[in-house]
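Q: What does the assembly look like in three dimensions?
Context provided by user:
Components: two
Sequences:
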Amino acid sequence: MAHDDIKQSVDAAIIMFLANVNVNEQKADQISLQLASYIQNKSIKLLDIILALKDEMTSDEDSKRQNSLHCLSSILSNIPHDLLLRNEISVIFNFYKSKFDDDILMKFTLDAFNSLIAMKYISINEITTLLTTLKESYDPSKFLAATRFIPFEILQTIYIKDFITKHPNLNDLFIETFIHIATGEKDPKNLLISFKLNKLITTNLKNVTNFKNKLFDILFAYFPITFKPPKNDPYKISNSDLKLALRSALSSSSIFASDVFDNLIDKMSASSPIVKNDTLLTMKSCIENYGGQYIIDSWLPIWTSLKFELIHNSEGSTESTMLNPITNESTTISTTTNSIQTNYQIALNIMKIIANELEKYNHEQFLKFFNHIFEELKPNFTYEKDLKQSCSILASIGSANLITFNTVITNTLPLFLQNTSEIPKLKLLLMNLSFFLDSYVNVFGSTTIITTTAQDEPKIITVPDNKLFEYKDEILMILGMALTGNSKLEVTVRTLSIIQFTKMIKMVGYLTEDEISLIVQYITETILTDSNKNIYYACLEGLKVISEFYENVVFEVSLKKMLDLLPNDASEFIHWNNDEIVPIERILKIILDFTTSRHILVQESIIYLCGKLSIVAKIGSSNDYCFLLLSTLYSLFENNVSLINENDAINIKNAVENDLFNIMINDRPIAEDDHNLSLLSNVLFFISLKIPLKTHQDQLNRYNKIFIDDYKILEKPSRLALPYSKILSGLDKNVQISNVDEIFQAIVALLTDETKMKTTFENIGYLELLMILSNKWLSEDKVIEFFKFDNLSITNLEILTWLGKGLVMKNSKYSKKTLENFIALLSNEDVGVFVSKLFEIFVIDINSLQKFKNITYNNNVKLLYKQKFFSDIFQTLVNSYKSTQEMTIKCNYLTALSLILKHTPSNLVEPFIEDLLPLLLQALEMPNAEVRISSLGTLKDSTEKFHQLITDHVDILVPMLLKLVLPDKFNTINVRLLSLQLLELLTTVVPLNYCENFKQTVIDGLLLPLSDKKRIVRKQCIDTRQAYFELGQIPFE
Amino acid sequence: MSEFINENPDVIDSDELPSRKENITGDLLLSGISNETTLQRKKLLLSIDNSKSKVLQNIELLDKLLLINPPELTSDEESIEESDDEDDAYGNTDPKDVVDTQEIYDLTAHISDPEHPLSLGQLSIVNLPDIEVHDCGDPNKMVEVIIRITPTITHCSLATLIGLGIRVRLERALPPRFRITILLKKGTHNSENQVNKQLNDKERVAAACENEQLLGVVSKMLLTCK
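A: Here is the predicted structure of the complete assembly.
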């Protein structure tokens, strides 16, 4: 009874399947899975299904036959591989075989075979029969791509299941069948599997040589393959997938060697660089995979075809790129790592690989190859023709391995490595040499960075003895002579010499420590005495590269020497070799430029310069020299903030802080010079920022003792308020200042006490101190409590502004209210003008309050505080501006606004630009140069971004600008310059038909500024005028 | 073979043309409020660090703060004027940059040669020693500018075109009180007098400038001006 039930449900399922097939494939699949599971749990037999389908299968209607067979094949594909027994498989196999001549059913027949092949109990006879049938009775050209795919799958399954190795007599049949089904294939998906099978056959099966021609034909017929995937391509096959599969199949087996090279060389004559690229890469991978013995007969024609590519289509580096140390650097690195290579590079690579493979196979053969090429290129050295290409070819051969390298070096170097005093020859020599130095790096590798831990015991890297060692002294001598023996005017030769020196440093194990020192010495001497830009940068690059690997050598030989050159007294000249004078500034510039991001160099420079500073500062009137030293120190810190770690900071602090404090307090060139004291304070800021966090509390207590207890800066006005505030700014905001309220009160008392005269510098120090306190330690409520806007004394307003800045920077909840109070003061007739200037303080960027990467502990500065600030005040300012009629008051609003804009990034202003623009235009007429400058600056930024908006206002803007370009009390140089720049910018932004309207007006209006007394203004005026002359003018091509 | 094209002229690298040494960073010095010490300091700074360095910002900041805080504020209006007066005074004391031969050279040396992708300066067609400026200093009197150009070869057919290019450039760039005379250097051209006459004939220059195509060629020559 159960059986009957099942039978019924089987019938139902089959009907469902037939109904769903071609309509809802997913559903049909589900049903076939269901049926397969019935078979699996032995509820029914496969035979039952065949019986159930019998009528359909023998139907005259094509679709019925198709669907029924589809049903069966689908079930077959879903049953486990070990379910059907040998005789069952045999019955079904024969059943399908009988359907083989029915083309309509072919897809499902093949599908079923594919399932059967995978079954555990399939017999070898059936496989043989299947292969024979496929070979003899299957005609691929009759079927669609999807159907043609299945035979490939069948073969792949047979291969994977190891039938061929287990039954060697299948071998030939398998190959023949494959050739049969693969011939004439065009579908990319099928080609992909065809190439894959081809590769499996040629690499793993026997007797392939018998079939090599046919196997080769069904590969090379497609070369060079190009395929553009259609949109929404279901298989996601790309052009490069096909290319790579084909390349890998072609290069998989040396049996193709005799055919492949001839054919590839033919393809080299193609004009398309893409085809050439494919050909070259295929050639390369063939040579690599076949090995030396197979290219003995082919290298000559290959060379002939490559020679054309290398010599005539050369695109390698030209003299100018070689001379540029920066680009030269990047190209040498990229040749080894860059995956997208030019044809020129690939061709060179092929030469290298031929050399390598031949040499590995047989040294005699390699020599034959090398001698042929060498003899062919040799005359080029005599006639100085195509030298660059010749050298790069030979150097590529040398790059293969130690033996080829030695052969090349021994033969080639004597051809050109002869010192000469003729500059053009020397230039060629240096450029040619470069290729062989690269070749060394290719064979032996480049110097690797020694990690800091291994520093004490430098790893000796031994490089196998090679022929280039024999030339080392000569090369060093020639380079040295080229650098030092020539006049300073020979920029090219000298630059090349430095570049080659740098390259030699990168050659692993080539130079001894002494020789490296020598090179560092050469470069140091050159950079100190030569002012040419190219040479300077080549030297700088050289020093940077060397410090990457040999920081200690550079420190000892170069940095120390340079630092030692610095005199104690600025009036002393630095003599170099008795005949040259090196300016102090140059030494400092070099130090700044090359120490960046090198630990030892930065730290030692800082310590040394601080030491020097404390000597220099003792000499009176050395302010400017101190200033230079301090600027350098400051920049060293600023540029290397993230490099300097806690240990460095401690080292630096221990070494220099006492001295610095000493000169800060006692020595006039520092203590009484505003700039110097301010810079020194910032240096102290960096030190206190970087020392270990856990020491901050102790340090604070110590500093408090020094400044507050010893020097009593809270009792009488002192210039030391600024350094104190900078140091506090660097410290952790979580350290405790127990008496912060008292300090606050004391500062306020000091500032407001009229009897204690203070200089502006002292004033700023205290005000900044107040800001730091309000930002870091004072409670917000405490600060707000103190705010009294009825006291309009200058001092009180200043105090409020700075305290307010501390709040604004941390986005305090009170900042908006405070700012509104300040805006209200703008309309005050007495203090409005002053308050408008104070607005700048809110947004001014103070260096010690900037955000440093990975440092969040020092100040409460919110990333976007300016954005909040601007949106807080903008609308109020605009409204107040509109509501007043008083011109002076209006002016205050505009001044405040433009001073804020000056320090606000233009992207923050963007959302307000529509409202802002009219104000900016009015600001241009304000009797204040700074307001005009700021407004012009903002207008320039907006012009670049809001083309339409500016175009709308251009009729008002242009006449205003033409007034601003004329000299006037408020039209300072900067106003004139910016106006001219803005006028020029308009020509690129405003559409031509608008520009034409005012073209002549501008050209005439700019006639007077042509006689401006400042050259820089005249220059800009000429450029602007030229831009208007060129409007609408089409340059003749 | 090179009937009209001089194929291998001597070329000077564009970095090595004569140039004004000190004035490369003029605009950097201009920014912000400056007193004499600061200016001096800024110049010092530029000699060790040519980017817009943080030190520079720092100093400007300090100067600004010192200025925002007037020790005594009597009348606001006055104080602004005072500071601006200072600024202006600084501009006045600073000597006027007179138009010199280097300036004329800079205006013309970067014009492209019509047949080489090189500038007139690089080809030594325009040379600094061959420029004369006669200025008596009185803004109401004429200034005489004389340029002698050296064609690359004596039969250079483009000498007139080069001359025209230089003339257009200078007329656009110099105020009207400058009288410009462009001559071929003595003995450098076969038809020297003829060309000289053509180059300095107002009518003929004006006529040439009305020729759209010719103006297009000149436009292209002037594209490379710096």
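Follow-up: Residues 401 and 941 of chain A are 58 Å apart (CA to CA).
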